[in-house]
Amino acid sequence: MGELKEVGDGVWVRQSEWVWSNSVVVRGEDGLVVIDPGINGSELDQLADDVAGLGIPVVAGFSTHPHWDHLLWHPRFGDVPRYATPACAHLAGQARERARAMAEQSAPGIPLDLVALLTPLPADGGPVPGEIIEHRAHAVGHAALLLADRGVLVVGDMLSDVLIPLFDVRQDDQISAYETALDRLEKAAAHVDVVIPGHGAVARGPEVTARLTADRAYLAALRQGAEPDDARLASADWLSAPHRSNVEQARGQ
Q1: What is the pTM of this model?
Q2: Confidence label for 62 from pLDDT (cuts 50, 70 and 90)
Q3: CATH number assigned to the domain comprising residue 63
Q4: In contact, 72 and 107? CB cutoff 8 Å
C-alpha cells in the first residue's frame, strides 16, 4: 500500500488502507487522467506527490460511479474536467451534499468543496483514453474503462478479491444487472492481461477468470436461495450487513 505502481504501459495504481481502495492514473495522448482518487487527506496528498513525480500534467479526472469514495479530488491535480458517464454525473450532482457528509465522516482531511464535481463524458470520450463500458450493476452509470492497447481493464467496484458483489438498494433486480455486467466485463477481459478493481488486489491472468467465477457463484447461490460459500464474506465484519441486504433483495425478485 501507499506507492504508485505501474501495472501496464502508462497505467499506475496506488492502494489506500481504506477498504483496499485503488486510485488509478492513466497516461492519455494529452496528459494524465486520474481515476477514482482517494481516500483520506493524507493519502490524497501522497498521491498528488506521486502524480507530480511522473512529470506529466493532469488533463482530466474520471469517476467510475457515483459513490462518495469515488468522487474525491485534490487541488494539486488542477482545475480540470472530472468526467463520468452522463447518468453517473447526474446522480453525483443530486447526491453531492450526502456524499460530502459521508466523506467528512469517513475520510478526514479531504477537500470537501471538491467532492462530486463531475461533468458528463462527451460521446467521443474527450481526453479519457480507451473504451467506456457502462452498466448498472452496483450503481446506475457505473463504468469500466477498457485500455485494450495496454492490456488493462479498469472495472470500478467490480471483480474484487475482497468484496462480494454489492447491490444498489435503489435498483430492482440487481442479480440480473450484475449478470449482464459480468458478461460484458468478461468479454472485455478477453483482450487484457490486467484487471484493476476499485477495491482489492490487481488481478492478472487466471486470477481474472477466478474472480468472474466467484461473482457468478455468489449470484447463483442468491438466485437459488442458498447461502453462498464465499471466502470474501470473512474478509471484513461489515460485509455481513450488505450481504444480508443482498439476500433480502434477491428474495424479493
Answers
A1: 0.97
A2: very high
A3: 3.60.15.10
A4: yes
Asked if residue 121 has pLDDT above 90, the reply is yes
91 with 147, same domain: the answer is no
Which domain does 215 fall in, by range?
A: 132-253
The yes-or-no verdict on residue 1 having pLDDT over 90 is no
Q: Which residue has the cell 481502495?
A: 21
Is residue 4 a contact partner of residue 13, using CB atoms and an 8 Å limit? yes
Rounded to 5°, angle at Cα 218 from 214 and 222:
165
The closest of 165, 166, 160, 155 to 188, measured between CA atoms, is 155
Q: How many CA atoms lie within 13 A of 158 on its CB side?
A: 34
Phi, psi of 82 (to 5 degrees): -115, 110
Instruction: Calculate what percentage of the chain has a pLDDT beyond 90.
Output: 98
Q: Are residues 94 and 162 in the same domain?
A: no
Q: How far is CA 166 from CA 74, 80, 159, 198, in A?
A: 27, 31, 11, 12
Q: Identify whether the C-beta of residue 9 lies closer than 8 Å to the C-beta of residue 20.
A: no
Q: Which residues contact 59 (CB under 8 A, 6 or more apart)?
A: 28, 30, 31, 32, 33, 80, 127
Instruction: Specify the pairing of strand 5-8 against strand 119-120.
Output: unpaired
* Separation between Cα atoms, residue 204 and residue 87, nearest integer Å: 30
d(CA 56, CA 163): 33
Flag whether pLDDT at 2 surpasses 80: no
